Amino acid sequence: MLWIIRILIVGLIAGWLANKVMHQDSSDMGKNLALGVVGSIVGSLVGALIGLQSTNLIGSIILAVIGACLAEWIYSRYLAKH
């Protein structure tokens, strides 16, 4: 049960940071959480593919932010209504 809370916290932080990095609106916490959780999954997968795996919280957040930036870019490029 604790890992779910960690994923949500890391996802929320990563989504918020990714929105700041990508210069997007960061007021929608639901979108931040969704992109952050997707980003943490993507970041973990990409990190594993290139040999970077994190076991600590800071490393997890960094990989999640990278993944969330990628998810934010894909979302804004292909899924957001213009």
Automatic annotation (TrEMBL):
InterPro entries per the UniProt record, alphabetical: Transgly_assoc
Mode of membrane association: Multi-pass membrane protein
Transmembrane segments: 6-22, 34-51, 57-75
Signal peptide residues on this chain, from the entry's feature table: none
GO CC, alphabetical: plasma membrane
Matching Pfam families: Transgly_assoc
Keyword terms, alphabetized: Cell membrane, Membrane, Transmembrane, Transmembrane helix
Compartments, as annotated in UniProt: Cell membrane
Record keyword Membrane present: yes
Coiled-coil region list: none
Family under the similarity heading: Belongs to the UPF0410 family.
Protein name as annotated: GlsB/YeaQ/YmgE family stress response membrane protein
Protein species of origin: Stecheria intestinalis
Upper taxonomic lineage: Bacteria, Bacillati, Bacillota, Erysipelotrichia, Erysipelotrichales
